[in-house]
């Protein structure tokens, strides 16, 4: 049985009994947001991450979602990408293509992955340009309080160190507020070269979901969500605070095991 509730200003928590329930709840959540965005705007602009998230989204390729989701209206982006060839096993694009995009009727021209034949800096600049064009045509909305794109949904995973997208703890990239997309060449987790959405873009989204499973991430979940002393100001996951949008955490029980005072109604 799922536990669900709101914790302080850290968003909605959904703690699922097991991975199968988490996969179903996540698929339902994405399908509902897709339907709402298509009804309101005619399109659904979704940004993916890599890592364990993609496997956890797998139910979207199964019934009923494979038939009921309006895939033709999806515009796909990446919240972060490793600067490797698209057919490299480290590529977040390849992970999503093999795991999801090749299994549902997405329009190929709606899939916006990075240019894998240029430097990290050029790839970030080009990606930002592409997003800018799609903001101009309103395929991606624009935030009314910042000049940032407002994605309908940004899906994030979180590493055991609390990193989200390619925003790592204590890294200067956390301070980047001028650009929508930036790059790093010294990622503490290989591969070193990556592009990433910046915090202002993540926090301008209409919806942000952080999907975390496993006991190895329980401490980072506690530091990201609970009122801890001293506060962890540079823990990237704690800096996800959508200005007007909604933040939802999808956790399995091991990932939630170190949270303080869980008082939820079942
Ligand atoms: O390197 C990355 O790691 C994070 C977390 O991955 P996970 O396998 O621990 O879930 C991922 O969200 C990010 O997109 C990826 O580039």
Top keywords for this entry?
266 residues; alpha/beta; Rossmann fold; seven-stranded mixed β-sheet; 12 strands; binds the ligand O=C1O[C@H](COP(=O)(O)O)[C@@H](O)[C@H](O)[C@H]1O; Probable 6-phosphogluconolactonase; Glc/Gal-6P_isomerase; NagB/RpiA_transferase-like
Verbal overview:
With 266 residues, this protein is an alpha/beta fold. The protein has a single domain, classed as Rossmann fold, CATH 3.40.50. The chain is built from eight helices and twelve strands. The longest helix has 23 residues, at 19-41. It is globular and about 45 Å long. Bound molecules: ligand LXAUTJHC. Ligand LXAUTJHC binds next to helix 2.
Produce the secondary structure layout.
Elements lengths: L2 E4 L5 E5 L2 H23 L2 E5 L3 H5 L8 H4 L5 E5 L1 E3 L9 H8 L20 H17 L4 E2 L6 E2 L2 E4 L24 E4 L9 E4 L1 H4 L4 E6 L5 H8 L20 E7 H4 L10
Parallel strand pairs: 2-12, 3-4, 3-8, 8-11, 11-12
Antiparallel strand pairs: 1-2, 5-10, 6-7, 9-10
Bound molecules: the ligand O=C1O[C@H](COP(=O)(O)O)[C@@H](O)[C@H](O)[C@H]1O.
The ligand O=C1O[C@H](COP(=O)(O)O)[C@@H](O)[C@H](O)[C@H]1O binds next to helix 2.
Pfam family, one: Glucosamine_iso
Keywords: Hydrolase
GO molecular function, one term: 6-phosphogluconolactonase activity
